[in-house]
Amino acid sequence: MKVKVDPERCQGHTLCAMAAPEVFELSEIDGHATAVVDEVPAHLEEAVREAARSCPEQAIQIS
Ligand code: F3S
C-alpha cells in the first residue's frame, strides 16, 4: 500500500495524524500533512485507511 496527501486538498484538520501518527506528519509552518512513509507497513494499513476515511477533505490517496 502506498499513501499520499494531496497538498491542494489538505486543510490541516489533523485527523490523519491522530489516526496514524507514524505515517502522517503535520507541517509546523502551515499545519498541512505529508505522508512520511512511501510504502505503508502492513501493521499500519488499517490506521491509514481510517485516516483516509476520517479526512473531511478527502485529501488522502491510497493506492
Ligand atoms: Fe489534511 Fe485531511 Fe489530514 S485535511 S491534515 S489530510 S485529516
How does this model look, in words?
The chain has 63 residues and is of the alpha+beta class. It has a single domain (3-62), classed as Alpha-Beta Plaits. It is built from two helices and four strands. It has helices at 15-19, 45-54, and strands at 3-5, 24-26, 33-35, 60-62. The strands form two sheets. It has a two-stranded antiparallel sheet. A hairpin with a 6-residue loop joins β2 (24-26) and β3. The protein is globular and about 30 Å long. 25% of the residues are buried. The model has no long low-confidence stretch (mean pLDDT 97). Bound molecules: FE3-S4 cluster (F3S). FE3-S4 cluster (F3S) binds at residues 5, 10-16, 32-33, 55, 57, 59-60. This is Ferredoxin. GO terms for molecular function: 3 iron, 4 sulfur cluster binding; electron transfer activity; iron ion binding. Ferredoxins are iron-sulfur proteins that transfer electrons in a wide variety of metabolic reactions. Its cofactor is [3Fe-4S] cluster. Keywords: 3Fe-4S, Electron transport, Iron, Iron-sulfur, Metal-binding, Transport.
Write the layout of secondary structure elements.
Blueprint (H helix, E strand, L loop, with lengths): L2 E3 L9 H5 L4 E3 L6 E3 L9 H10 L5 E3 L1
Antiparallel strand pairs: 1-4, 2-3
The site of FE3-S4 cluster has 14 residues, from helix 1.
User: What class, by secondary structure content?
Assistant: alpha+beta
Mean pLDDT: 97
Q: Roughly what fraction of the amino acids lie in strands? A: 15-25%
Through-space gap between termini: 6 Å
Number of helices: 2
- Major sheet: arrangement of strands: 1-4
Helix percent reads 10-25%
Q: What does the overall shape look like?
A: globular
CATH class descriptor name: Alpha Beta
Stated plainly, the CATH topology is called Alpha-Beta Plaits
